[in-house]
What we know:
The protein is of the alpha+beta class. It contains 4 helices and 2 strands, in the order αβαβαα. It has helices at residues 19-33, 46-56, 76-88, 92-96, and strands at 38-43, 61-67. The termini are far apart.
Amino acid sequence: MRGRSGRGRAARAAEHLTVESLTAQLDAVIGDAGTGPVDLVGFSLGAPVAAAFAATRPELVRSLVLVAGWAGPGDEYLRNLMTVWRRIADDADAFAAGSRPSPGSAGSS
């Protein structure tokens, strides 16, 4: 399953996304597919969702791989990452800054 609720083609009515709500969605998708135990990979936010799913529905998980996840709301890396994202969210130029030469560099005019 690629993407998550509220993003791209998976856009839904405004709702708070939680690990529990995403786990329930994953359960529904795997149940609808009816393919039995799955090899489950969780990346970033998908890591705690996949871990929670495996803990609550172990009969549906053949193997589990967790990549670049986070441990919980007290995770210092996640706190710092979200702080940076909040700071640059309102600054469109911040995303392009890395692609422009800085003043006084060899590539600037």
